[in-house]
Amino acid sequence: MEYWLISAPGEKTCQQTWETLNNVTSKQNDLCKNYKFHIPDLKVGTLDQLVGLSDDLSKLDAYVEMVCRKLASSIADTLENKNLNANEHLLANGMDLATYITRFQWDVAKYPVKQSLKSLNEIISKQIGQIDSDLKAKVSSYNSLKGNLQSLERKQVGSLLMRNLGELVKREHFVLNSEYMTTLLVVVPKMFYKEWWAKYEKLTDMIVPRSSQLIFEDNEHGLFTVTMFYKVVDEFKMHARENKFIVRDFEYNEEDIAQGRNQLVKLENEKKKQFQTVLRWLKVNFSEAFIAWVHVKALRMFVESVLRYGLPVNFLAVLIHPYKKTQRKLRDTLNQLYAHLDTSISQGPIDDIPGLNLGQQEYYPYVCFKINIDMFGA
Prior knowledge:
By secondary structure, the protein is α+β, with helices and mostly antiparallel strands.
């Protein structure tokens, strides 16, 4: 959803400017919906400072928007379930983004208007830098936990070549506590079952006859037991490998099996706990970052309007929500309405005006910034 934040110099009164703009664009032609955008009386400083700030604020604008989008993306990633609408979690000061931006009120507590414009720029830059840094740490920690859990889960359900065998075997499958004999677990591709039954007793000496049983199958493999004397284990493994029978290293130990099961439960519980904590943090800091971003837009609007229209400060800021099919007509209407402000507009949009930094946006006779609040769009 795209908005245009524009400003125009006050006529006799800013109210008169508002009525003229609103009549031409909204009431008469129904091209858009307009909202007054309240910018407080900020400290102007010198012209040199404003020119420098124009560049600084342009960079800050891009940075804060990037952090907002990273936070939104992290919220979507954390939710995982695609049925959960991530947009529902993107709020600013408890409001959906469209409501916040159309009812914008400057937050004096966070960004005191008695501070210089440079100080306000630094406050926001420091705040967002901290959020960005914390975001990396939070996401890295949570992703590490998710990765460990996914690795364990794969071992519970993956291929017999990799999965945890403790969940598949029982005590009675093994010869236990014998001084001379042991039971091995062998993974055999299904296409080689016949060969296994024909060969396993002959792969080496000292294999207990008819000791093999099939205890589990997945799509591609079967898990077999076979019992033999300890002294031939290495030789058996070698001959098994030659026949594409894979001996899994496994020692039956009920304590280890229970511990593995507990580890999975522990990680699942830890992930549930961390999920709530991380999601809450992301939502809170997305709100903070988005609020900061709109304040940066307001600061840019103030600086560019003073540079464009001069002193004393007398301009009206308006947030326009253009309707999709009327954007070109709306732009033409605004250009006609404010053509008197700059005759160069008749030669078409200009990309570079000395001392006026509008980023990559085109130049119009009025100050204009686009704000796209679709956090998952371009």
